[in-house]
Structures
1.
Amino acid sequence: MKILAVDTSAVCASVAVTQDGKILSECSINTGLTHSRTLMPMIDSALRNAEIDLSEIDYFACSVGPGSFTGIRIGVAAIKGLSDATKKKCIPVSTLEALAYNLSGQDVTAVSVMDARCNQVYCAIFSVEGEKVQRLTDDMALQIDELGEKLKDFENVVFVGDGAKLCHSKLGYRLAGMGNIYQRGSSVAFACEKNFSEEKAIDGAKLMPTYLRLPQAERELKARQALSNKK
């Protein structure tokens, strides 16, 4: 099974082409350039380096959140377009679950964390035993101190994700290695493949972002409306 997978949920953008658990090519950019500029050239490069035509891809995998609202929309829109053009189905993957696969091959409690600003993180906890990754919590949006309370029940904790260093500075615990701390397209593909079923494969038109909280603009609008209603 050939998979083209993308992750645009944070500053780092990553694209990978995999086949039956093997990485054929992978490209990541963490320069701060907008994903709308870099994603399609990265997809083209990943396919060319893997020597695979787009028509040979069996499924598209996409991290659908949580994460950057704009970044996720760009990735989802790109995969929607590719799915529609090729008539191939796509599989949505939790950004936090994909991050846990960065630690595959170890025996740890993987805590996937993404900086949600305002001293909050998007987070989820996973058990990693060799190649087996098991979800222990739902995806959550928590204050960092709240996450710290939850982690008291776990051992051998390792932070992974773009919020890992922030959580490490406040809570301690170990960090993932530098090569595995940020989002990776190959991990999106592996999460897709390990949990694959035909029921999870959907048409591109049905692919939607998954947010754990409203965008800041909507939150501020609701706050202003609530204040206005009190007057």
2.
Amino acid sequence: MALVYLEYDFKVNPLQPATDILIAELGEAGFESFVENDSGVLAYILKSEWNENILDDLFILAHPDFEISWTSKEIEQQNWNAEWEKNFHPIKVGDRCMVRAPFHEAEDVEYDIVIEPKMSFGTGHHETTHMMLEHILENDFDGKSVLDMGCGTGVLAILAKKKGAGPVDAIDIDEWCYLNTQENVERNDCSDIQAFQGDSNLLKDKKYDVILANINRNILLEDIPIYAQCLNPKGQLFLSGFYLDDLDAISSKCKVNGLEFEKKLQKNRWISVKYVN
């Protein structure tokens, strides 16, 4: 039987930074996936996870500087994939990497990545994923062991592998993401990437040269000590999924765990940061 989702259509004025804040708050409330458009954002949640008070505690909806209205309706799972096909456009990261869906034509780039996103986050359209892809392009991954934590579609693991990394692990707590990553690594001839469903509890006794984690602020703050323990000497930790306002808290947590700030990328209010031990 098909899963039933609720689609919320939020109209946002002005769009930024309200849309980014709204997506972050909806994610905390249990919404799984988002499609940004010219008027705001479409947000999706399983009907079984919904309750009538789910929007009551969202700060951004009561903010006087923004006008936000919404409607909602039930949809079946297959309609979501049709929405992606309508809204998912290929993107380029610099002039070296292209992320596209199977129904887009390939272009002559160094790294061509084909992603079928389904219900998973991570196509390069959101600022955080785009910046993480930039970090991977700018750094040497040849022969390095890599963890993509909170892998979503698996796009970060795939680019790392295409840049010569190995072995590469990809972990996500969400079953959709785990299954989608498995599909996407096969699609990109990266079948030796190992995908796992779970959280940081899977990292016991694991060691990596590079850890990539594009997750929300609270999970990062909780898991940074674990990441630090899992890094080999001269290891690199790339983080995103949080705002510039959160940088001090993230960097402080990294510092007490032996990780030093090295570089920051920023798009709108979102940032992505490189730390080294």
3.
Amino acid sequence: MSGPDFANHDGKIWYNGEIVDWRDAKVHVLTHGLHYASSVFEGERMYGGNIFKLRQHTERLFYSAGELGFKIPYSIEEIDAASIKACEINGITDGYIRPIAWRGSEMMGVSAQHNTINVAIAAWEWPSYFSPEARMNGISLQIAKWKRPSPETEPVHAKAAGLYMICTLSKHTAEAAGHQDALMMDYRGQIAEATGANVFFFMSDGKLHTPTPDCFLNGITRQTVIELAKKRGIEVVERAIMPEEMANASECFLTGTAAEVTPVAKIGDYSFTPGDVSRNLMEDYDRAVGKTKADAAA
């Protein structure tokens, strides 16, 4: 999300049930969420005035909060409505929505049972995560040194802020080396995901293969693309995939709210050619979310 300073932006933010000026949506420096990562969030997209799969995103926000041991002080319906309101007050019909919930500053230390749970929702216009040219030609990924942790070490199925530290480290290293993103393995050495997206491979057996999400997020976009592939008659295989198996893949693509469906041309020493499977699923996804041809080219 490069570009202007996100703290210095014209607009409004939904903050604990009130609409506040964008620049006034602040937290204290001793906020527990800042020091101990007791924060969960969502990333959502609005297309043509509709937030794609809003209810699923909101339900996941509440699930993530539960995994971190706190309760969001609003109903799912109220957060749905607030997400829509955040877009309306900023005049957004095509953009990105970021709901976030975190523990406040009443207690400072690992223990924080009495901290207030805060919720904010921001919305802004945001173009494609990767450039249109990169999406058509395929992006390049470096293989990250950091690995997705075991479910015994972290709440791996929550969309929790702390789980993204190794993603930032991996993406920064990859970009410094001239790549657009990084592919992460899991604690067993199996392929897991990119830094903010799931990964698919079209293999020599004519099937679409994707890692089983047993230690990382089963992305909402991932689930959508699996449904779209099956509608096309493409068999989808969810399984453990070892890095060397990438040699058997002709196509590869990423899926995510930000990435949407983005073909991959290179991962480490492995090369892929964006082909019919990737292009067809890109187009299917664009139709599913309500993108116009002009939007898709932008």
